[in-house]
């Protein structure tokens, strides 16, 4: 059986270099404890909770001049709705991530994916169909894949495809657009294409870059699998949960601030309507299992514009950007999110022109 470092080398030289460096360090300090994760995620989580408690106690007085009582209630409803919608899938992703870390040997991924990174990307994109979750689940799972030696390009392709082409999302799209199977097909084709394009784009421009914070193994040799699973689950939940709360609060705030009347003025222009609905998907941060029903209700917009809404939402929204920043670093999110949005919008226009 190959070692984690050998598996990483088979998949990505940059990962192999990191793994080799880690092995050298271990040989030099055989008795050292594994490096502890920075307390940033716990601090963010605690500060967020304090802020939210303060808003709950004093929100009406603080925002009385900015929002009506109805606006405050809308904000609270949106915040709770986004959080409650996403939390079960975040828990699912955390459980899957912890299970991958504790029970799946790194050599498995070297055998499951093609050794050439360019070929591993489409395989990873297609495998996203097996995860019935949303974007909150895909972030910790893709991080666990990277930490187990999977090339980042393939892990990122999985991150983008899993919340967009899984059976639950496609089924909900079919229900939201009855008698219009072309909408389901267009969504699947566009989302799959975007995930592969971004994976290959990473291979071409981001490979070996310093702005992707690679997840590291946080456990010493000899730690039991049960302890690894438990500690990984608690760490990932606190780490991702704090950023999820921040993203949900931002989505609720933007939902209240942006006037809905603005949408009526842009529906008649195809390019502008695609951009507006793409931005709206980023700001509203609706779970991928529910966004098709929102898109179906925007009847003043064309099917192509609504396709952009459904393609952009699961792969780049405010809560997902926050989760990516917390998991892979803010430098990564600052580059990856705009590139994802641009590719998703252009792909939606092309597929919409072709199929819709």
Automatic annotation (TrEMBL):
It is found in: Cell membrane. GO terms for cellular component: plasma membrane. The keyword Membrane applies. Pfam families: ArsP_1. InterPro entries: DUF318, UPF0718. Keywords: Cell membrane, Membrane, Transmembrane, Transmembrane helix. Residues 1-37 are annotated as: Disordered. Residues 20-36 have a biased composition (Basic and acidic residues). Residues 1-19 have a biased composition (Low complexity). The chain crosses the membrane at residues 39-58, 79-104, 153-177, 184-203, 237-258, 270-286, 292-316, 336-355. It comes from the Bacteria. This is Permease.
């Amino acid at each position: 059986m190959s070692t984690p470092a050998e598996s990483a080398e088979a998949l990505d030289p940059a990962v192999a270099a990191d793994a080799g460096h880690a092995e050298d360090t271990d040989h030099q300090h055989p008795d050292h404890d594994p490096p502890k994760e920075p307390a940033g995620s716990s601090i963010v989580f605690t500060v967020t909770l304090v802020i939210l408690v303060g808003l709950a106690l004093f929100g009406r007085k603080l925002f009385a001049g900015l929002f009506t009582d109805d606006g405050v209630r809308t904000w609270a409803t949106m915040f709770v709705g986004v959080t409650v919608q996403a939390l079960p899938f975040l828990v699912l992703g955390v459980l899957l991530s912890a299970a991958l870390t504790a029970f799946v040997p790194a050599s498995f991924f070297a055998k499951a994916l093609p050794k050439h990174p360019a070929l591993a990307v489409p395989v990873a994109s297609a495998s996203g169909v097996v995860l019935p979750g949303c974007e909150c689940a895909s972030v910790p799972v893709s991080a666990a894949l990277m930490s187990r030696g999977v090339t980042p390009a393939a892990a990122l392709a999985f991150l983008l495809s899993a919340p967009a082409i899984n059976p639950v999302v496609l089924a909900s799209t079919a229900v939201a657009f009855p008698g219009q199977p072309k909408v389901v097909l267009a969504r699947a084709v566009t989302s799959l294409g975007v995930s592969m394009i971004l994976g290959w784009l990473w291979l071409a421009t981001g490979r070996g870059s310093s702005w992707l914070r690679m997840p590291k193994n946080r456990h010493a040799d000899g730690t039991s699998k049960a302890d690894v699973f438990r500690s990984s689950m608690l760490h990932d939940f606190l780490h991702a949960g704090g950023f999820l709360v921040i993203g949900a609060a931002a989505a609720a705030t933007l939902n209240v601030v942006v006037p809905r009347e603005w949408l009526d003025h842009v529906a008649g222009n195809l390019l502008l309507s695609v951009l507006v609905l793409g931005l709206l998907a980023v700001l509203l941060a609706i779970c991928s299992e529910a966004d098709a029903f929102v898109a179906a209700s925007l009847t003043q917009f064309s099917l192509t514009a609504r396709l952009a809404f459904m393609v952009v939402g699961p792969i780049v929204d405010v809560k997902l950007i926050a989760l990516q920043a917390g998991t892979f670093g803010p430098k990564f999110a600052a580059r990856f999110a705009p590139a994802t949005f641009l590719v998703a919008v252009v792909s939606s226009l092309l597929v919409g022109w072709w199929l819709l």
